[in-house]
From TrEMBL:
InterPro entries: F-box-assoc_dom_typ3, F-box-assoc_interact_dom, F-box-like_dom_sf, F-box_dom, Kelch-typ_b-propeller, SCF_F-box_component. Residues 37-83 form the F-box domain. SMART domains: FBOX. It comes from the Eukaryota. It comes from Spinacia oleracea (Spinach). It holds the Pfam family F-box. PROSITE patterns: FBOX (PS50181). This is F-box/kelch-repeat protein At3g23880-like.
Length: 445
């Protein structure tokens, strides 16, 4: 992506000069009328701040060097919060997201008719080794690492890290409380409580349903971590059993983390929510008519998307697997006043040819995982184009390739990667992300 920073700086200079001229003309007019005025040619700070709020993050970091007045304003918590709000309003069609591996972190943008994603390396500090993504919120990224013994599959600890790759600030080694046994099946989410201006992490281990690894079975327990307080707080567990690991997602419109869970005393699933402000649970909405598991929740442009994929295969000559069909369905949760309704965005989109193309492309790679059908399980959408006529789909949670789907005719095309290092062949994780000035130190002060 071309660097547009000089345009922002040029526009800022033009606007400031224009306002200074207006200010000087007003001053001269007052002096003509016999009114004494003391004008330095400097804009009021409120007006300068209003202009600065409309500039993207990276140019702002450079503009901090212009003068002490701008540096102090750009660093102030009030300005940072206002800047986030302005960008959510004026950049509602943001197409940015991040890709990361255990050693590298990149940002990229998806544009209409793109055939290539240009990656830009972020941060001096790489992603901590063996960490996986939990979520992103207001420019902050949350990662998780599970320390384990591979022979016994015993989990020793779960560690969390929060960072902002733009401000290069990191908060490491947040240890999840251990109430006797860690579980492979747990729920975790990261979000923002706007009422208390605090970033929080939710963690919950399951009910004692036989999935706990360790000595004995413990009842379900849940905690909320506050970055502002730098401490964990015990809360009531969710009102349902957890039969798989869920990474909870948040939307831009409220303080709620969402996940799919089983309704108590029924065999049906629905979307549950955990309110980060009140620290209470509530049932959000039933799922659409989904006949096949699995499904995943994704947040794109502040809206919840439900993704369902179906893989059909047959064993041919071992260890080869013949791919019969791979289809994807996507629903979007739309708000109609006080009502919410699932609207189907993609209906039985076939990914078979795209995956077969990747399998053929990777046939000679050293990494055997890139040659397996299983390595392309759970494809997910990662970004819309600006006009929402196209959607970018990563083939697998550990992305090894992208395809673009035209939402009008359902046609697919491959999207290449430009700028990744050699570890791309092992797969990357991705998350929606927009840059911000939020620093961990300011959010935890």
């Amino acid at each position: 992506m071309a660097d547009k920073s000089p345009d922002y700086v040029g526009c800022l200079s033009m606007y400031c000069n224009l306002f200074r001229k207006i200010l000087l003309l007003k001053t001269k007019q007052k002096e003509k009328n016999g009114v004494t005025s003391y004008c330095t040619g400097r804009l009021p700070l409120e007006l300068e701040s209003n202009i600065l709020e409309r500039i993207s993050v990276e140019p702002l970091l450079r503009l901090k060097c212009v003068c002490k007045r701008w540096r102090d304003e750009i660093k102030s918590p009030c300005f940072i919060k206002s800047h986030i709000g302005q960008f959510q309003i004026h950049n509602a069609n943001s197409t940015s997201f991040i890709l990361f591996s255990p050693s590298h972190l990149y940002s990229t943008n998806f544009h209409k008719n793109s055939t290539t994603l240009k990656l830009k390396k972020l941060g001096r500090n790489s992603v901590p080794s063996d960490f996986t993504g939990v979520g992103s919120c207001n420019g902050l990224l949350c990662f998780r690492k599970i320390d384990r013994d591979y022979p016994e599959r015993m989990i020793h600890s779960i560690r969390l890290s929060v960072c902002n790759p733009i401000t290069d600030t990191t908060f490491n080694n947040v240890i999840v409380p251990n109430h006797g046994n860690y579980s492979w099946h747990h729920m975790i989410g990261f979000g923002y409580d706007c009422m208390s201006d605090d970033y929080k992490i939710f963690y919950s281990s399951p009910h004692g349903d036989g999935h706990v690894i360790g000595k004995g079975i413990e009842p379900a327990k849940s905690w909320v971590y506050s970055l502002k307080r730098n401490s964990w707080k015990s809360v009531q567990p969710p009102p349902h059993r957890c039969n798989k690991s869920w990474t909870m997602v948040t939307s831009n419109s409220n303080n709620v983390l969402y996940w799919v869970g089983g309704k108590p005393n029924t065999n049906k699933n629905c979307i549950f929510g955990f309110d980060l402000e009140t620290e209470e649970y509530h049932e959000v909405i039933p799922l659409p008519d989904i006949r096949m598991y699995p499904y995943e929740l994704v947040n794109l442009k502040g809206c919840l998307h439900l993704v369902n994929c179906r893989l059909n295969f047959a064993f041919a000559d071992e260890p080869e697997i013949k791919l019969l069909e791979y289809t994807m369905n996507i629903w979007v949760l739309k708000n109609y006043g006080s009502n919410r309704e699932w609207v189907k965005l993609i209906d039985r989109l076939s990914l078979k040819q795209a995956i077969e193309t990747e399998l053929e492309h990777n046939r000679n790679l050293e990494n055997p995982q890139s040659r397996s059908v299983y390595s392309y399980c759970h494809p997910l959408p990662y970004a819309y184009s600006e006009d929402e006529s196209e959607i970018l789909i990563g083939l697998s949670k550990h992305i090894k390739a992208f395809v673009c789907c035209d939402l009008h005719n359902g046609k697919l095309k491959r999207v290449d990667i430009n700028g990744a290092l050699n570890d791309w062949k092992y797969g990357y994780e991705g998350m929606p992300w927009t840059a911000s000035l939020v620093s961990i130190s300011s959010s935890t002060s």
